[in-house]
Amino acid sequence: PALLLVPDFPDGGEPGAERLRRQRVCLERLGRPAAPTDARGTVQVLGGPGPKEVTVRYTFNEWLSFVDVPAAPLPPEPPAERYGFTLCVPPSLREGSALHFAIRYRSPQGEFWDNNGGRNYTLRCCGCPGAGPAAAPP
């Protein structure tokens, strides 16, 4: 069967205004289900004056190593600015493996994280029986 990355965290839908105000950065949406070769999503940030940087930090080996990927600006939806990201998935990922990620926003006002309340966001690599090559008839 084909493999897909499936979110292993509750779907909070649109981030609440209070959560965004408190954290200044929130995962907005994650493409579902994520393709076997990448995971895509959008982030909201409460912007301020000056330069800003939004990155997504992710790992496949329980944080023994990680990669920081820059997120690209998207059209804003006031009061938040929006950014899009793509995480590249290695072809060696196997069923049961996990991709963990957190979002970082840096600006002159400070550094802010959305790490799913300290648990990080997790995508699990799962088999999807209907998405693989057609099985031969019995």
Automatic annotation (TrEMBL):
PROSITE patterns: CBM21 (PS51159). Pfam families: CBM_21. One of its GO terms (cellular component) is protein phosphatase type 1 complex. Gene3D superfamilies: Carbohydrate binding type-21 domain (2.60.40.2440). GO terms for biological process: regulation of glycogen biosynthetic process. InterPro entries: CBM21_dom (IPR005036), CBM21_dom_sf (IPR038175), PP1_regulatory_subunit_3 (IPR050782). GO terms for molecular function: glycogen binding; protein phosphatase 1 binding. Residues 17-124 form the CBM21 domain. This is PP13G phosphatase. It comes from Nicator chloris.
